[in-house]
Amino acid sequence: PATRPIIAVDGPAAAGKGTLARRLATELGVPYLDTGLLYRAVGRRVLDSGADPADPAAAEAVARALTAEDLVRPGLRAPDTDGAASRVAAMPAVRALLLDFQRNFGRDHGAVLDGRDIGTVVFPAAPVKLYVTASAEARAHRRWLERQSRGESVALEAVAAEMAARDARDAGRDAAPMKPAEDAVLLDTTTLDAEAAFAAAMAVVRAKLNLG
Ligand code: CDP
Ligand code: CDP
Prior knowledge:
Elements lengths: L5 E5 L6 H12 L3 E3 L1 H13 L7 H9 L14 H10 L3 H16 L3 E5 L2 H5 L5 E6 L2 H14 L6 H17 L12 E4 L5 H16 L3
Parallel strand pairs: 1-3, 1-4, 2-3, 4-5
Helix pairs in contact: 1-9, 2-3, 2-4, 3-5, 4-8, 7-8
The structure holds cytidine-5'-diphosphate (2 copies).
The site of one cytidine-5'-diphosphate (CDP) has 15 residues, from helix 2, helix 4 and helix 8.
């Protein structure tokens, strides 16, 4: 039924996808899946094994053996995991291995999923697709604040440069590149706080699902 929908939330790094998607899921009473965590888990395990995250054979072997425990391992948000995740995410075999899990997650009860290709590839028929963006400066600042509050000392410029390189890799790859679905609603959060972004997103959800 329409009250158990799939809601796709895509966009670049630190746009506020996860914060928004989690809140939408709570509001609608459906499960939430952070699909970036799957790619992070693969990238992290490849790094921890001493292999090169750019080596497709190593990444594919890890993706094939991925377990739920890998999604709660330490270091999934570490800076070196960011780059490793986006390297393994460019490999078609890795993406194919993660697809069933994502589709099964939303199948029975509906779900909110956030990532890069939810509206374009994972659930192309989702009734609600949001593409969340913000200026590169705002996103770098948000990620930098998060790192500061975790006690990591890192320059804003370094965060911005790493993020720009990762976004370029995610948007430029051939396999499920990061881009808005044709029927996605764009939500620019540059000047919105999380509360305002949630309100704007809920207006879209209500309209698309005819919730009144
Ligand atoms: O999932 P994604 O990487 O897109 O972003 P996030 O982890 O949800 O949010 C990154 C940071 O931006 C968090 O510290 C949020 O509190 C903050 N933020 C937000 O989520 N939404 C806004 N509209 C403004 C800031
Ligand atoms: O939180 P943040 O936006 O920085 O990243 P994330 O959502 O955790 O995703 C980490 C990386 O996984 C991205 O840079 C992408 O390379 C990849 N990813 C993807 O390719 N497809 C998805 N559906 C989700 C993440």
